[in-house]
Amino acid sequence: MAGGPTPAVQIDSVLRHCRGFQLSSGLEVNEPIIVLNGEALLWRPRARIDSSGVLMMDTNTLAVFEISITKPDMVIIGTGARNEFLERSVREYLHNLGINVDTMDTRNAASTFNVLAAEGRNVAVALLPAE
Fold this sequence. Notes:
Elements: E1 11-14, E2 21-23, E3 28-29, E4 33-36, E5 39-42, E6 48-49, E7 54-56, H1 63-67, E8 74-78, E9 85-86, H2 88-96, E10 100-104, H3 106-118, E11 123-127
Parallel strand pairs: 7-9, 8-10, 8-11
Antiparallel strand pairs: 1-2, 2-3, 4-5, 4-11, 6-7
């Protein structure tokens, strides 16, 4: 749906020297967020990187995708300052919901989300701060 309406919420910037984001509304959010169906939601992912460099998180922190009436086709997970592998159980959880998942460093995840959302794609993003 190229050329469609501008998405309700976009990520204007990943803030430097700060644990957060500036949204297209001008609001600065200094916590992890999920942008889903045009809304920005605060997110408490309880995420950590294990000793082998895999991003671990409780799938319960992604339950918003399970209860959402309109599920995205894809979720982009911004993993912080670097791209990290996502643990298998999280990938399987999202795939079982019919949602594709990709990981990127947070800056690229925000940018990719903005482009895909502006094209009218049904995409969501979950962003960890780029510390």
